Amino acid sequence: MDVIVAKFGGTSIGNGKRIRKAAQAVVNEYMKGKKIVVVVSAIDKTTDDLLNIVTESMEDTATEKQLAEIVSMGEMTSVRIFSSAIESLGVKSEYVDPFSEKWPIITDSNLLDAKVDFKATEVKCNELMKMMDQGIIPVVCGFLGRDDEGYITTLGRGGSDITAFLLGHCLSADNVIIVTDVGGVMSTDPDRVEDAQILDEISVEEMRDLATYGAQVLHPHALQYKDPKINAKIIGFDKGDLSVPGTVIKGPSEKEMQKAIITLHVEPISVIAVVGEEILNKTGVLAELTDTLAVNEINIYGISTGQNSITVFVNKKDSERAHQIMHDVVVENEHLSSLSLGKEIAMITFNRPDFIDTPGIISDITQPLRNNNINIVEISSSETSVMIFVDWKDGKKAYELVKGVLN
Ligand code: ADP
Ligand code: ASP
Ligand code: MG
Fold first, then answer.
1. Which CATH architecture is the domain 3-253 placed in?
2. Would you place residue 406 in the very low, low, confident or very high pLDDT band (cuts 50, 70, 90)?
C-alpha cells in the first residue's frame, strides 16, 4: 500500500479554514486507501512571533534550552489542531510530539541546530508504521527533535522539510509531498520577480544548490534523505488537493548516491590569466571573454576573478585556440591590457552529499596537501562538491591524498 508523507508549511495551515482544507486533502488520500503521515510546521508566522516576543521580553538572555522549548510550542500547537481537524472529518488521528512515547526523531544535543541520529530515528519510525496499520493518521511536529536525555531540540529554521524527507526515508515512503504557499519550485523567488515561472520538475542536485544559495522553498539539508525510489514534489496549498502536479523533484542519480566520488580529470587543464587595472569594477568584461569562448565552443571548467585579473580554466587541448581568441578580446577591450597562458593544471573534483553538514571538510582536504608541499592553484566549493586545481605534476599524488582523507 502506498505510503505518503505530507508536510504542510506555515502558510498552508495559516488559519482555521486552511487547516480544514488541508485536513480534508489528507483525508481524501486516506479514503483512496493510502497510508499517510502528516508533518506540520507552526501556524503561519508563529515561530517568528515567538522569537520576537523572547527578544522583547529578555533581549538575548534566553538559554538555548529555553529557546528550543519556547519555539517548540508552535509545532506542538499545530499538531494538536491538525489532528483534531482530521478527527472532526471522521478519521482516526493522533498527534506525535517530542513528549510522546512514539516520538521518532532523535538528535544530538545541539539544541537549536540539532543533527539527526539516523539509526535511532529509523528504529523509532516503526511506531508510526504501527499507527498507520491501525488506520490512524499520525500528525508529527516538524522541525523538532529529542535528544538522548529527553530535551527538546530543533533542526534549525525551516527544518520541517528535513522532518518530512527524513520520515519519508525511514518509512520507505512512496511519496513525500511538500505543501507550501507557492505552486511549486519556480524559475526564481516569485516575491522578487513577478513573472517567475513554475517548473514541472527539478533534479535533487539542482534543488539542493538552489536551496543552499537561499531559495527558501526547501531546506537544503532535507534532500540528503531523498532516495530515487521516493517520488517527491512541492505543491501549492490553494487547490486543497495533494494529487496536483506541482514541481517534481527527480533523483538523485546513481552517481550522486555513491558515498563519495572523487575524480581526477583525465586531461590537463590550462589556466589563462587576463589582466587589466581594476577589472573587478568594469562591467561586461567577464561576459565578453566567456561569450567569445562559448561562440568558439570552448568549455570553461572554472573561472575566478580578482581585483586586476580574471583566470579561466580550459582543457589543455583547447588552450592555444582559447589564448588566441582571448587575445583578440584583450586587444580590443580598453579595460584589458594583457594575458598569459599559464602552466598545466590538474583538476580534482569530488562530490559527497554529506559535505553539507560536515564542518571542516575543506581543511581536512587541504591539510595533507600542505603537509606534502602541494600548492593549490585554485579551490572552489559548493555544499556538496569541491574542485581543487593543482599543478599537473602534483595531480596524481594530490588525488591519492584527497582519496585517503575521504575514505
Ligand atoms: P513554508 O512555510 O511552506 O515552508 P517557506 O516560506 O519556507 O514556506 O518557502 C516558500 C517561499 O520560498 C515562497 O513563498 C517563496 O517566496 C520562496 N522562494 C524562494 N525561491 C523560490 C523558488 N525558486 N521557487 C519557489 N519559491 C521560492
Ligand atoms: N516553524 C519553523 C520555522 O518557521 C520550521 C518550519 O517552518 O519549517 O522555521
Ligand atoms: Mg519552509
1. 3-Layer(aba) Sandwich (3.40)
2. low
